[in-house]
Amino acid sequence: MDETNFKKNYSMQTLHRSIQILRAFSTERKTLSLTELHNKTGLSKSSLQRILSTLVFEGFLYKNEETKKYQLGLELMFLGNLVEKNSSLLSIANPIMEAIRMETGESVSLNVIEENKRKCIGYLMSSHGLQTLSFIGQESPLYAGASAKVLLAFLTDEELQNYFNTISLEELTEHTIKSKDDLYEEIMTIRKHGYAKSEGERIKGAYSISAPIFNPFNEILAAMSIVIPSPRYEEYDEQVLIKLLQDGANQITQTIKTIN
User: Fold this and answer.
1) Residues 229, 131: contact at Cβ < 8 Å?
2) What does pTM read for this prediction?
């Protein structure tokens, strides 16, 4: 399918126009007026004004009211920093994740916090036929599953209290924690031991072990996890899995601290 048909059949015209506007800026042309944007994009000034107002409101563009010129907004810098951070983290973590997958044959994932949820940013699939599938971009609550609870456990006390004040616990499976008191008690245990484990809290029939990865300021950055289907979990020595995962997470943490 060529580009014209793609745009016609699978995309929204306004979104394409917005992207066209953002791409009009460059290192050589950091600020552009309405007329300059009209000349560069070919869009009518009435359409431009509507889209520009939205982009300014959402923080993707900034308008200087004195010069009436536009420039790229701070929201793009924030998103760019997220991409850079996650890309750097993945480049460091991937070889270690691959080594763990090779040694165990099991799925390994890398997860971060985004908007008070666990989000998967890296996933290596198990070599076994029976496996628990995940995908990059998958989100879940911070109170269910080993990786989510590791991310939650190593927030600051203030961040943790704010989270507890705003959430209600939804039962994802029969094994999901139903009480905030029980959740808090488990969070304290995870802090003490430096890892989390779960059985079927988010997905039935899945065991998971997770360990924290920290940034140079000793703040929680990510959680690395092994996910194993219940029928195969008993074949492993749990303590060996925990040590393997903690050693890998510590190695990633130390590498991040060295290069920053």
Assistant:
1) yes
2) 0.68
